[in-house]
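name: query_chain
kind: protein
chains: 1
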Amino acid sequence: MLVAGYEFTRAAESLLNKDGALALAMTKSARNGTPEEIARVKRTFFATTRTYLGRRLLQSDRNANLMIEVLRTCVAQHEFHLHDFVVMPDHVHLLVTPDGRMTIEKAMQLIKGRFSYRLKRELGYLGEVWQRGFSEVSVCGEQSFRAHREYIAQDPVRAGLMKSSEEYPYCFASLSKKRQAKDGVLVQKSCDCGTSNLEP
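structure:
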C-alpha cells in the first residue's frame, strides 16, 4: 500500500511505541521464514560461498577434488539437486535445489561443514576454511536458470584460468564432458537435469 502526505503521518504514528520512539517495521524475508514456509515449495538458488580471507584454498587438485567429492556425497544421499557448480580457487558457485526437507541455509551448512571436517581430518588442515555465511539469489524461471548456469560456466574463463569452461577440471561442464566420453551418451543440460553428472 502506498502512503503519502497526511496518511503517511498517520501510518508513522501507528508505528510509535509507548516511549514515543519509532518502532521499525521489518518485513520477514523468505530466507528467514520458518522451515515449514521455506521447505513447502522446492526452489532453486544460485549460491556462492567464499574461503576465509579469500585464501586460494581450493586451487590445489586435492582440495578442489575433495570439494567435488563432498558435493557427490550430498547428491548421492539426496540432500539436494545440484544442477551446476564450479570450484574456483577462493570460492564456489552452486546452482542448487534443496529437497522438501531442507532449506538453502541447511544445504550450505552441510556442504561447508562436511568439506571443513574432511579437509581437517583427512588432509591435516589447521586453519579457518570458510568465510562466515554465503550469498544466494533465488532463480525464477528457465531464462534465469540458463543465465546463472552460463555465469557459472564462464567463471574460470573470466578469471583467466582456462580458455574454455570445459577445459577447467573442477566444474560441471568438465565432469559432464568426461562422463559423456566414458558412457558414450549425451547428458541433457536443462532446468530439470538434477543430479545427472555427480552421481558416483
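note: The chain has a mean pLDDT of 79.
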